[in-house]
Amino acid sequence: MIRRPPRSTLSSSSAASDVYKRQGINAEYGGQGRGAMSACPPVDQCKATMERLRKKSQQIIDRLTSFAKADVVVGKDCPLNLPMEESKLENFLSEMEMQWRHHGLLTRTMLVEPSQRLDKNSAHVDTLQDAVDEAKKDSVMFSNVIKALTKDKNRAVMYAMEKYNLWQGGTTEDNADSQAGAIWAQTFALQDEAADDLDEILQMADDQNQQGAESLQTMKEQTEMYKENIESAKEVTELFKEGLARLAKLTDTASKDPLGTGMCVLCCIIVVLCVYVTMK
Predict the structure, then answer these.
(1) Least confident window among 10-24, 111-125, 155-169, 193-207
(2) CB 3.0 to 4.6 Å from 148: which of 19, 48, 208, 248, for a disulfide?
(3) Is residue 53 within 8 Å of 92, Cβ to Cβ?
(4) What pLDDT score was predicted for residue 24?
(5) CB 166, CB 72: distance < 8 Å
């Protein structure tokens, strides 16, 4: 069965824009949560870059969708350079995914880790924690947007390619529909498979970020234990030096007053004997 949707389903609304609206976050950068995110300008900048790339990608997808819906005008040049538009869209999505990964790294190193080191009684705890929560929410939101944009891109390019072929003098639209049925079915299957692979890749990236954060925390705990052991060793060394000094002082005293030392030893022996006799 051919899974190709009817042409009437083509619209400027996309799955990516729906995902973006469902998050409850303003499409314009600087909306909800800006106050919390101001705790870390680099994370803010990364978020702003992803938002610009999202808009550019969505604009191209909308252009491809409108192009696919328009009628072919015989005798006129094609109004859209499909290969160039597709290449630009691919570059935007690749850059957006890279920025998403960078956003996760900045969130971990500049927000999560400092919040773990911060004194719980500090006045900045709540502000920093709000920034961490906001950054994590943005990471999940943009992850979903990237996946949705990728699906929208594949679908828009497929429809636009068919119309582009007609502009280039290909077969009539009805014939193209009948001849391309099997190809469309296979393409949609590949699209679903690619979407599943992308989900796995994004999940692996998220897991790696989490493992990295845990490893860093473990290293910090081990470093603190090492510092504590060094301090304990220093204390033992000081006590040992103090004991040697007392022993040296006692030895010096014994060498100067042998009679007094002998009396002290005799007294100790008497005390030990008394204790021994009492115990019997």
Answers:
(1) 10-24
(2) 19
(3) yes
(4) 42
(5) yes
Quick one: tokens of 235? 């204390």
Tokens of 178: 């009948």
**What pLDDT score does 93 carry?**
94
Long-range contacts of 113-122 (CB under 8 A, 24+ apart): 113/213, 113/216, 113/217, 116/217
pTM of the model: 0.56
The radius of gyration of the chain's CA atoms, rounded to the nearest angstrom, is 37
Q: Which residue has the tokens 């705890």?
A: 125
Q: Smallest Cα–Cα separation from 112: which of 213, 230, 243, 13?
A: 213
User: What is the distance between the alpha carbons of residues 203 and 139, in angstroms, rounded to a whole number?
Assistant: 12
Is it the case that residue 34 has pLDDT exceeding 70?
no
What are 133's two structure tokens? 């929560």
CB 46 within 8 A of CB 171: no
The amino acid at 24:
G
Rounded average pLDDT over 267-274: 74
Q: At what angle do helices 41-69 and 82-107 cross, to 10 degrees?
A: 160
Q: Which two tokens stand for residue 110?
A: 């500049």
Q: 3-state SS of 83-135?
A: HHHHHHHHHHHHHHHHHHHHHHHHHHHHHHHHHHHCCCCCCCHHHHHHHHHHH
Helical H runs in the chain? 15-22, 34-37, 41-69, 82-107, 113-117, 125-167, 173-256, 258-279
Q: Tell the residue number behind the tokens 């079915």, with chain if given.
A: 185
CA 148 – CA 280 distance, rounded (Å): 92
Return d(Cα 37, Cα 23) in angstroms, integer: 17
First to last CA, the chain: 105
What local confidence, expressed as pLDDT, does residue 188 receive?
60
For residues 61 and 89, the answer to whether their CB atoms sit within 8 Å is yes
